[in-house]
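Comment thread on ticket #2218

A.B. wrote:
> Attaching the input chain for the structure job we discussed in standup.
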Amino acid sequence: MIGLVLAGALIAIALGVYARVHPPARRETVQLIFSATLPFKVWTTTLVLALAVFQVASAMRLYNRIGAGDPPEWLGPIHRLSGTLAFIASLPVAFHCLWSIGFTPASSPRALVHSALGCLFYGAIVVKVGAVRSNRLPGWVLPVAGGTLFTALAGLWVTSSLWFFATVGFQL
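C.D. wrote:
> Ran it. Output below, let me know if you need it in another format.
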């Protein structure tokens, strides 16, 4: 377990260091159907949060914390697929944050918290995926890792998407 937590911490630290020492490109990246990169990031992060809410609910059902009887057979594969899709959808958002914006802790307290949560999020992914793959860890590790991951994502959403919706509005 210590090795898994260290691996997650190393990923989180490496992302933070890269974002801090890399000179920000300050350019637009992915936009797709959106007017600019920022609305793309805001709506994509909202999608990732929605998938994460499904992840929490389906995990609770899979582990019989909600609902009665055995969970349906299709729930496990859909749970894994939604987690994979959430991770993949988060990557262009993280790329833009790291490459184009960087880590500028002095810009605002919101940006500082957001940057730290972004690093924690990817470190927590490493720990959570490692915990899922291991049969030798105590039973409490997976829910703690998943809870940490969800909490980091919720904090990211609050410091980015919710801030954007409250400040700019619901633009595409």
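A.B. wrote:
> Thanks. Noting for the ticket: The CA atoms of residues 107 and 113 lie 11 Å apart.
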